[in-house]
């Protein structure tokens, strides 16, 4: 049992949760995730470790309440418990000092991006952060990211905050001048966004790391359900990733596989609303 | 009850049939297929045993269960003594009675198999174990042992780890099991389906272990949450029984389409997560009208019979060789046939074909014929030219097998592995690292429950000796 110490809403449906998990707090590195099961009988849900405090024995999760599984997680109030939290899983992000790095986050991907961007800045990189969302309320962690970013650029689809358009717009601007052109790009967000970023950086061969979010169960390499196609190879995102070379990822297959249970998921969501 | 029959009288008794759920009914539910012998049946079957002095059946059992002794007490109706003898050698008899491949182990060696059918050792083992579970109170509790003051960590809560933990606790050591998943049992829980091995049996066995003082910590992935190095620093010895949970991929086109599963994923969704068993289960599974399962072992049988229970009209086994080469337990093959499973033999998959929306729609296959025997002694399947055909399948399950999962071993370069990634150990389970022992599938590759248990038991004895030396 893992105690929830804090649970606050950052944006519509997006919660920041603080948990007591001393072993994970001590072992985790940026880029790794946990698998959470809120209660007996519930799904196993992978979530990135947003932050950790080894001394306090706590970890932070950013949870977007999308469907039944995540909604049950965010419903746990401070003082309550999550039954299972297992991790840290996946490989840590490879961090080095490349110089200029662009960190691009879309939607809840911004939360997944946060620990990486922080670690990249700590390693001496000049981090430009580009974050996007549907509209102003969905822009998250701007202040937190500004604390270590050289610059934070914001885009929204409806123009209600920052520039109107997609994150690729700002990335293109950065890439346009040799003075701001990043050496490496990290992109984390919905599949179409990561794909668009990879297509944008490909002609200039700017190394682009993406963090993939296929459907997972165990997270230990046992089930093979999280396989993604990287170049010609099938890799297990939970043990070989979740970060991969964006120029080698088969985004079509990833998107397809993520949609495998759409019908079931819709029904669960309806069921949840009827209960409430 | 009397057990003073003559050999001739014993020989005249016919082998009991296991009562089972009707095939039509059970192919739509997940409750156990075999219902268990009645007391009368069990006693009669036990009376078939000739109590051979040479005990060939015992030699056929990897943990040397004292078969004639427990069967004799059963034949006399002394169930408590039968249970005591059985459990002296086998920590999980209710499991083994159900899933051991008896036909190649104890029963294969039974003298009665020379003329007719062997004594149904598996059925009797199951009967006695189930009785013991229901009549816990009548069994004398093990005498409490003096604590040794030593601490042992066990990695993995499958049959190897559970057995090692039970033995070590019995020797007075303080045992903690670390398990990566959120629940106990290893393959017994996430792999073998409810209709073959009910989960309440695993629950009862685990509860018994916990009562003896064993600590079980789930959600701890050794190599990630804690390292082997940390365990070695915090405990006096470590036993590694983390299994062989890494699926072997098919390596054919279309393997990543929607609707294509590894056996581990398919079975885990259903057995561990409850998909398709409880209505409204949180974790989903694709049902499919046509399901093709590739492989011929126990895992393949479990997948195809699960598919049937999930409503498949055609649930098919696709296997490269012939039926007699299939490694599955004969009882599973027999039950599968009764349940309407189709056996597409001498057939190899070439590719999974998709529809416009990225879903599997069919398996492209090729016919095979058997050539010369290969290294395994089985005749090698050879493709028949021009024999390609399509098998409709919206769900395809790859049950080709598993290999050693490198998650733990990769974090400890000092631990010696063989070329397949299995941990190298001596006959007592000692590895290249002092105080670190290993057993079960991580050492053998995919093997059997009873072999994993035997390893756990031998390693526990070796650990006890090691701790007494230390
Ligand atoms: C490595 C990794 C890190 C992640 N980090 C975060 C994070 O920090 N914060 C966050 O909010 N989300 C994160 N996600 C995504 C999150 O796991 C999914 O949103 C969640 O599982 C959806 O489950 P649900 O039952 O709430 O929604 P559902 O309605 O069941 O599913 C919504 C969509 O989520 C995807 N999904 C469903 N089940 C799973 C599953 N078991 N594993 C992965 N994806 C699934 C599918 O595309 C599905 O269509 C991460 C995913 C991965 C793989
Ligand atoms: C579907 C299926 C059907 C089978 N049917 C039969 C049968 O009928 N009869 C038979 O005799 N055998 C059968 N087998 C084989 C048998 O189940 C295995 O040989 C046996 O379970 C091996 O036991 P084990 O304890 O070595 O490993 P496992 O049962 O695999 O248990 C290993 C445990 O370790 C955990 N683990 C893994 N990595 C870590 C880590 N890093 N840290 C912590 N924990 C970890 C795993 O989650 C798991 O719980 C079957 C196997 C399968 C897959
Ligand atoms: S443990 Fe298995 S092999 Fe040994 S006697 Fe029992 S059923 Fe037979
Ligand atoms: S070999 Fe068969 S008949 Fe002889 S003791 Fe063993 S079980 Fe009984
Ligand atoms: S989630 Fe099962 S192998 Fe990655
Ligand atoms: Mg869900």
TrEMBL record, chain A:
Gene3D superfamilies from the UniProt entry: Nucleotide-binding domain of ferredoxin-NADP reductase (FNR) module (3.40.50.80), Translation factors (2.40.30.10)
Cofactor: [2Fe-2S] cluster; FAD
Gene Ontology terms for molecular function: 2 iron, 2 sulfur cluster binding; ferredoxin-NADP+ reductase activity; flavin adenine dinucleotide binding; metal ion binding
Cofactor, how bound (note): Binds 1 [2Fe-2S] cluster per subunit. Binds 1 FAD per subunit.
Binding site for [2Fe-2S] cluster: 223, 226, 238
Pfam name, any one: NAD_binding_1
Residues given in the record as FAD binding sites: 69-70
A GO biological-process term: pyrimidine nucleotide biosynthetic process
Keywords: 2Fe-2S, FAD, Flavoprotein, Iron, Iron-sulfur, Metal-binding, Oxidoreductase
Domain of life of the source: Bacteria
Domain FAD-binding FR-type: 1-95
InterPro entries xrefs: Cyt_c3_hydrogenase_gsu (IPR012165), Dihydroorotate_DH_Fe-S-bd (IPR019480), FAD-bd_FR_type (IPR017927), FNR_nucleotide-bd (IPR039261), OxRdtase_FAD/NAD-bd (IPR001433), PyrK_electron_transfer (IPR050353), Riboflavin_synthase-like_b-brl (IPR017938)
This enzyme's EC code(s): 1.18.1.2
UniProt xrefs under PANTHER family: DIHYDROOROTATE DEHYDROGENASE B (NAD(+)), ELECTRON TRANSFER SUBUNIT (PTHR43513), DIHYDROOROTATE DEHYDROGENASE B (NAD(+)), ELECTRON TRANSFER SUBUNIT-RELATED (PTHR43513:SF3)
Protein name: Ferredoxin-NADP reductase
UniProtKB/TrEMBL annotation, chain B:
Alphabetized Pfam families for the sequence: Fer4_20, Pyr_redox_2
UniProt GO molecular function: iron-sulfur cluster binding; oxidoreductase activity
Domain of life: Bacteria
Domain FAD/NAD(P)-binding: 150-456
Domain Dihydroprymidine dehydrogenase: 26-136
Coiled-coil positions: none
InterPro entries assigned: DPD_II (IPR028261), FAD/NAD-bd_sf (IPR036188), FAD/NAD-binding_dom (IPR023753), Helical_ferredxn (IPR009051), SudA-like (IPR006004)
Full protein name: Dihydropyrimidine dehydrogenase
Species of the source: Geoalkalibacter ferrihydriticus DSM 17813
